[in-house]
Design brief:
By secondary structure, the chain is an all-alpha fold. The chain is 69% helix and 0% strand. The protein has a domain of 32 residues. The longest helix is centred in the N-terminal third of the chain and has 29 residues.
Length: 72
């Protein structure tokens, strides 16, 4: 492999990338500030449980694991 040619190709790619980056930065400057993100009404992720719900789940899981242990 010709190292000189590989280096020249890499320099050419670098020049192209610098040009594209400069163009994108110019677009960003002329576009102005980004509009604020809309605040969606729905909350994402897990819903929080009350202490009563946690206790019910805990009891249910204790029964589940006890039945699993006794089955083996």
């Amino acid at each position: 492999m010709d190292l000189y040619k590989a280096i020249q190709n890499l320099y050419a790619e670098k020049e192209k990338l610098e040009h594209v980056i400069a163009s994108l930065e110019e677009l960003q400057r002329t576009a102005g500030p980004l509009p604020p993100m809309p605040n969606g009404g729905k909350r994402r992720g897990r819903k929080s449980m009350s202490s009563k719900e946690r206790k019910e789940v805990s009891e249910r899981m204790k029964k589940y694991w006890e039945s699993r242990r006794s089955a083996s």
